[in-house]
């Protein structure tokens, strides 16, 4: 999970490293810890460290982790030669290693040799049928080939065994959303909320899915989940604030003619107020836009 | 740091003195063959003082407290990690980033 503190630290280190202020190794460590995809920067600064024998020896045994990190970043940036070189160094150091074997298969993937990569992964699975990463790579490969239904099938099979893998649930939810299968996506997000009830991003995503599904009941639930997101983020999540406003407008439209709930009258005005305050502080020139939007939603007081 | 540690040491000293006084008091009771009615007032005072000093040291020496509120700056989750286990390589970066001139020196 990337907290606000991590984010500011990452931004600080990134600008420091980009302007030649040093701290490249700390930056690479933070990127690895937070699992952030900054392949171009990892490739650039990682190679600078690896090409300098003095810097390389100063990080000690972590050198091999860095080789792996740079290899994956190089595949992501399509510098396949660099990836090849890194993997060669690693396989010289660790012959017969499964982890290096995985990298080899990933390189095949990056080259686009799907069948060979598939064979490589299958042989890795024969040695260790419970290798989670390889299972996930197979799903990713199906996704890369554009066969999302196969990816879903693989992922469901995987989740039957590894039910506690939150990342996989999230991936499945995202695939379902991209296929507009919102009911299934909602199920995945419910699973995620059950597993990690304090992560506001899951609440937000679930609320988005419910709002998209539509219908009075779903939108009422969505509003509750937007409210939970606001609760967990201290009202600093703009999307959740907008969500509450939109839900209220949608409920007002759907429940037209029926008796209105006076209890819910306060939440959206508060959300609108916070939005206005936030815009005044961070983007004053966009404020008229916000006020007119809120007015069309008939929310501004 | 130095202050907290000194205060803590002082607290421990006072507590040990209270223990020593208690042992002495028990010895005295045995000699005078009196019934135990309650601890002497100086031991109680020492215990309270020692406890307060130790508590002060325990709260200040180990460092600052972290926030437990989910909405505080250090706990507020702004984004999820990218799902790197499922990363795929055929994206637009393939075209945009391909001409990297850096190579690994072997």
UniProtKB/TrEMBL annotation, chain A:
Membrane is among the record's keywords? yes
> Which residue range or ranges hold the EMC2 TPR-like domain?
100-209
Q: Which InterPro entries match?
A: EMC2-like, TPR-like_helical_dom_sf, TPR_EMC2
Coiled coil stretches, renumbered: none
Q: List the record's Gene Ontology CC terms alphabetically.
A: EMC complex
Q: Which Pfam families match?
A: TPR_EMC2 (PF22890)
The membrane topology term of the UniProt record is: Peripheral membrane protein
* Keyword Methyltransferase belongs to the record: no
Q: State the compartments where it is located.
A: Endoplasmic reticulum membrane
Q: Where is the signal peptide?
A: none
Entry keywords, A to Z:
Endoplasmic reticulum, Membrane, Repeat, TPR repeat
Q: Which SUPFAM superfamilies match?
A: TPR-like
Q: Which family does it belong to?
A: Belongs to the EMC2 family.
Q: What is the role of the protein in this entry?
A: Part of the endoplasmic reticulum membrane protein complex (EMC) that enables the energy-independent insertion into endoplasmic reticulum membranes of newly synthesized membrane proteins.
Q: How does it assemble?
A: Component of the ER membrane protein complex (EMC).
This chain's protein is named: ER membrane protein complex subunit 2
From TrEMBL, chain B:
The UniProt entry's GO CC annotations, sorted and at most eight, read:
early endosome; EMC complex; Golgi apparatus; plasma membrane
Record's keyword terms, sorted: Endoplasmic reticulum, Membrane, Transmembrane, Transmembrane helix
Q: Which InterPro entries match?
A: MMgT (IPR018937)
Q: Which residues cross the membrane?
A: 42-61
Please give the superkingdom of this protein's source.
Eukaryota
Q: How does it sit in the membrane?
A: Multi-pass membrane protein
- Subcellular location as annotated: Endoplasmic reticulum membrane
The principal location of this protein is: endoplasmic reticulum
- Presence of keyword Transmembrane helix: yes
Q: Which Pfam families match?
A: MMgT (PF10270)
An MF annotation (GO) of this entry? inorganic cation transmembrane transporter activity
Protein family (similarity comment): Belongs to the membrane magnesium transporter (TC 1.A.67) family.
**Quaternary structure note:** Component of the ER membrane protein complex (EMC).
Name of the protein this chain belongs to: Membrane magnesium transporter
**Source species, please?**
Spinacia oleracea
């Amino acid at each position: 999970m990337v907290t606000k503190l991590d984010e500011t630290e990452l931004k600080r280190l990134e600008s420091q490293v980009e302007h030649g202020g040093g701290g490249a190794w700390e930056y690479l460590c933070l990127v690895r810890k937070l699992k952030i995809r900054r392949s171009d920067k990892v490739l650039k600064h990682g190679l600078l460290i690896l090409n300098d024998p003095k810097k390389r020896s100063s990080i000690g045994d972590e050198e091999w982790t860095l080789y792996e990190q740079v290899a994956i970043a190089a595949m992501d940036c399509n510098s396949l030669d660099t990836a090849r070189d890194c993997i060669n160094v690693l396989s010289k150091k660790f012959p017969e290693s499964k982890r290096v074997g995985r990298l080899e298969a990933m390189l095949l993937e990056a080259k686009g040799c799907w069948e060979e990569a598939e064979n490589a992964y299958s042989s890795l699975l024969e040695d260790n049928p419970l290798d989670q990463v390889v299972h996930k790579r197979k799903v990713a490969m199906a996704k890369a080939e554009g066969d999302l239904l196969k990816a879903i099938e693989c992922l469901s099979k995987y989740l039957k065994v590894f039910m506690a893998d939150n990342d996989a649930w999230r991936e499945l939810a995202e695939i379902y959303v991209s296929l507009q299968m919102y009911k299934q996506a909602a199920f995945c997000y419910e699973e995620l909320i059950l597993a990690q009830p304090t992560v506001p991003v899951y609440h937000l995503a679930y609320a988005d899915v419910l709002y998209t599904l539509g219908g009075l009941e779903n939108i009422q639930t969505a509003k509750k989940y937007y409210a939970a997101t606001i609760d967990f983020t201290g009202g600093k999540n703009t999307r959740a604030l907008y969500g509450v406003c939109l839900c209220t407008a949608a409920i007002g439209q759907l429940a037209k003619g029926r008796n209105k709930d006076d209890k819910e009258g306060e939440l959206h005005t508060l959300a609108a107020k916070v939005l206005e305050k936030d815009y005044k502080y961070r983007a004053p020139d966009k404020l008229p836009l916000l006020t007119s939007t809120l007015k069309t939603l008939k929310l501004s007081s | 740091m130095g202050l907290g540690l000194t205060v803590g040491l002082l607290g421990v000293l006072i507590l040990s003195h209270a223990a020593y006084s208690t042992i002495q008091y028990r010895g005295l009771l045995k000699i005078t063959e009196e019934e135990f009615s309650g601890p002497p007032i100086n031991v109680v005072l020492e215990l309270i003082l020692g406890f307060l000093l130790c508590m002060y040291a325990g709260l200040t020496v180990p460092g600052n407290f972290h926030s437990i509120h989910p909405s505080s700056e250090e706990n507020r989750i702004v984004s999820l990690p990218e799902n790197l286990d499922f990363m795929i390589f055929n994206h637009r970066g393939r075209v945009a980033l391909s001409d990297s001139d850096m190579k690994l020196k072997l």
